[in-house]
Amino acid sequence: MKAVFTKHFDGRTIFENYSLELENGKIYVLQGPSGRGKTTLLRMISALEENEAGDNGDFSSLKFSWVFQEDRLSSTMSAYSNVYYALGGSCDKAAIIEAFNDLGLDEPYKKIREYSGGMKRRVSLIRAMLADSDMVLLDEPFTGLDARSIFLACSFIKAHQNGRTIILVTHENAPLPADGCIEL
Amino acid sequence: MQIRRLSAALCRVRISTISSKVVKAAAILFWLLIWHIAAVVIGERILLVSPVTVVARLLELLRDAEVWHAAAFSTLRICCGFLLSLVLAVILAAAASCIRWVRIALEPLVQAFKVVPVASIVIVVLIWVSSRNLSVIISFMMVFPVLYTNLLSAIDSTDRDMLEMSRVFRLSRYRKFRLVYLPQVYPYFLSSSSLSLGLAWKSGVAAEVIGIPSGSMGDLLYEAKVFFATADVFAYTLLIVMLSVGFEFVMKSLIRAVGRRLEAV
Question: Of B61, B68, B125, B170, which has fewest CB within 10 angstroms of its CB?
C-alpha cells in the first residue's frame, strides 16, 4: 500500500510529498517528536483530513477503525452499548463480553461516566479491534494504563489483529512486537 | 475509622437534605401566611380571599360534576396541543438539521409564533375554528417554537468528535441516533419539555378565557370573574395549577423512563 501526502497548516508545512509505503498485515509503530504530525498523518491516511497531494492512493479503498486520542464514547451509555452500537452488528454479544474480560474489565454494563480514564481507553481499544476494518489506527491507546493493563492490551491487539495492518502511536514502553517503524 | 468517617459524611448529607426541605417548606408557609394576613387585613372577599377559604371553596366545587367535566375538557385539549407540538418539533427539528431549505422555510414561521401576542392569535384563530378546540391550537403555537428551537440548537451543537467517530465506524442512521444524537439532545429535550408544559397550560387557559368555549376551565374562570366570585377564581386557578403540575409530573416521568431505557441519561 502506497500513498503520497502533503499538508500545510497555518502557513506551516506539515508534510510535503511525504511518501508512505506499508505492507499488508503488519504492525507499525509511528514515532516522532511532539507536534511533528503523527495524529495528522493517521487522520490523512483515513481521509479524515484532506490530502493536498490528491487522493490517498491505495489507502482510499480501505475501511478503518480507530482509537482516537480522545475516547469518543457516549458517557450516558454503558461500556457494552458503546461498543455494540459502534460495531453495527458485526460482532455478537459473547465476543464483546469476552473482549471486556480479556482486558480486565469486569463491569461492561456500567455507564461510561463511571469509568476511569484507563478503563475508557480499553473500551475504545475493544471498539477499534472488534470493528470490521482493513486497517487499525491506534493513537495513544495505552494512556492511563498501568504496566499489567498495557501487557493485556498488547496481547489483545495481537490476538485480534486478524491479518490487518495496524499503525500504533505510543509514548509508553509497550511489549508489542512491531514489524516496522514509521519515523517522522 | 474509614467507615465511621463515611457514615458521618452520609449523616451530614442527610441532615443538609432534610434542612433544605424544611427551609423550602418554611418559605412556602411564610408566603401563605403573608397572603392570609393580607386577606384578613383587607377584609373584603371580593378583593382577596385567604388561602384557607380558597382550599375550602375548591373542595366544595369539586363536588360538582361540571367542574370535573371542565377539568377533563381543558386537560384533554391542552395535552393534545402539547403532544402535537412535541411530535412536530422532533420531526421538523430533525428535518431542519439535515435539510437546509426546511430550516429556512420554518424560520419565519417560528419567529412569528414567538413574537405575535397570544390575544391576537386567539382572535384570528376564533375566526377560523370553533372555540372548542382553541386551546389545542394556542398551546401548540406557544409550545412549538420553544421545543423546536431548543432541539434544533441541541442537534446543531452535537459533538463533532462523536460525529467523526460515527463516520469512521460507518454507523447506520439508527445507531448514529442512539450513540451520538440521543445522549446529546436528550437533556435539552427534557428541560425544554419541562419548561413548555407549564407554558402550554398558561397559554391554553388564557385562550379559553378569551374564547370562552362552553364547558372549559376558561369558561368557569370567566363566569366567576363576571360574578365577582373571587374565591371561585382562586379555587379554579388552584385546580389548574394542580392539573398542570400533575400533567408535568406524568410527562416528565414518561420522558425520563424512555430516556433511561434508551440510555440517554
Answer: B68
